[in-house]
Design brief:
Layout: E1 4-12, E2 18-27, E3 32-36, H1 43-51, E4 58-63, E5 66-67, E6 78-81, H2 93-103, H3 109-122, H4 138-150, E7 156-160, H5 168-185, E8 188-193, H6 196-202, E9 205-210, E10 213-218, H7 220-225, H8 230-235, E11 242-249, E12 252-254, E13 259-261, E14 275-280, E15 285-287, H9 293-298, E16 300-302, E17 308-311, E18 316-322, E19 326-332, E20 342-344, H10 352-363
Parallel strand pairs: 3-8, 3-9, 6-7, 7-8
Antiparallel strand pairs: 1-2, 1-4, 4-5, 9-10, 11-12, 11-14, 12-13, 15-20, 16-20, 17-18, 18-19
Bound molecules: adenosine-5'-triphosphate.
Adenosine-5'-triphosphate (ATP) binds near residues 13, 19 and 41.
């Protein structure tokens, strides 16, 4: 196991395009780090530079205290699990898992057998060791790929969207297994995904990338509650955060259909007359009829017309139109809730940094 340190990492392709642009990121020994961002943001490129499948244009990649920029992938002692599993079709499950051990010098047949059986036991593959990959389900194949990754002691596990070929149910199941396995082995892990749920549930910390630039590195909770800019605020959370134009008027904040006190987190950072963008999560709205009276006293009650509601089984969302073509999304706490009587929680996220950074984002 080892810490991974990235110092000002740049990946520039031939045409001068920077797929990864000056990324510095420290991953602690034993940490589970998620790299997330929209398609093309550079997350796979970054992962491939850690493992050595991609040359680093500039910057330092340090694994376990050692600069590895010029080290061959096999000398970095890392295990990578790919989206397409990359299993050998002509080899049995046993031999697929044993493969990395056979490449190592001096591992005895007994040791190989013990280690393969240990890995297979952890992944519930014991009964399938004699099968070929073609005779396995998608989930079992994914487990074999993981077995191959964990069979030898390595500095870190690297996962590149390992669950994206599985159906939703299996994805959920495998997510739990990966999480359990990582906790049990305590191995440093870097996991690339564009899946919100994986990003928010799997990692100790999440690094959000956009167009090759690192936006924020934080715990899932911190990302959700204190996004540093509008991109992170809008990317994390589903349905996404509502963005509303707002204007500061004394100690009040005026939004299109309601007015609230400037939230305490923003007090002192805003000036009278300033125009901002306020971010409200769908779950920041509650039904006035259902909120306890104490909360209601501190909230802002307003009435709104609900356009469409969406029922997702465990939650329900309402879409409330405002102005010409804009709408906000809110979560309904109670399926039987009255739709036109609503309260807004006092906890109102206003992304003050967002307004200034928005301009930078748009230029980028
Ligand atoms: P996805 O989720 O779609 O896999 P990603 O965030 O993993 O996206 P990367 O695969 O890292 O994105 O690619 C980052 C950017 O670099 C993309 O714009 C991609 O088109 C570009 N890119 C990747 N490989 C090359 C290459 N060999 N030559 C030129 N550009 C490349």
């Amino acid at each position: 196991m080892a810490a991974i340190e990235m110092r000002n990492i740049v990946k520039e392709y031939g045409d001068g395009f920077k797929a990864v642009n000056d990324v510095s990121l420290d991953i602690a020994d034993g940490e589970f780090m998620i790299l997330v961002g929209p398609s093309g943001c550079g997350k796979s490129t970054l992962l491939r530079m850690i493992v050595g499948l991609e040359d680093i244009t500039s910057g330092d990649m340090v694994i376990g205290g050692e600069r590895v920029n010029d080290k061959e992938p096999r000398d970095r002692r890392l295990s990578m699990v790919f989206q397409n599993y990359a299993l050998y079709p002509h080899l049995t499950v046993f031999e697929n898992i044993a493969f990395p051990l056979r490449l190592q010098k001096g591992v005895t047949e007994d040791e190989i057998r013990t280690r393969v059986h240990d890995a297979a036991a952890m992944l519930e593959l014991n009964e399938h060791l004699d099968r070929k990959p073609a005779n396995l389900s998608g989930g079992q194949r994914q487990r074999v790929a993981m077995g191959r990754a964990i069979v030898r002691a390595v500095n870190a596990f690297l996962f590149d969207e390992p669950l994206s070929n599985l159906d939703a149910k299996l994805r959920g199941q495998m997510r739990t297994e990966i999480s359990r396995m990582q906790r049990r082995l305590g191995t440093t892990t870097v996991y690339v995904t564009h899946d919100q749920t994986e990003a928010m549930t799997l990692g100790d910390r999440v690094a959000v990338l956009r167009r090759g630039l690192l936006q924020q590195v934080a715990s899932p909770r911190e990302l959700y509650e204190q996004p540093v800019n509008m991109f992170v605020a809008g990317f994390i959370g589903s349905p996404p955060m509502n963005f509303l134009p707002a204007a500061v008027s004394g100690d009040r904040l005026k939004l299109p259909f309601l007015e609230v006190a400037v939230p305490s987190a923003a007090a002192g950072k805003v000036t009278d007359g300033q125009l901002l963008i306020a971010g409200l999560r769908p779950d920041h709205f509650e039904d006035a009829a259902l909120v306890d009276p104490a909360k209601k006293a501190t909230g802002v009650v307003f009435r709104a017309r609900v356009d469409v509601t969406e029922w997702l089984g465990d939650s329900q969302y309402a879409y409330i139109p405002f102005e010409a073509d804009q709408e906000i999304t809110r979560q309904l706490a109670d399926l039987a809730a009255e739709l036109d009587s609503e309260a807004l929680r006092t906890q109102l996220i206003v992304s003050i940094d967002a307004t200034s950074r928005l301009r930078e984002d748009q230029d980028a």
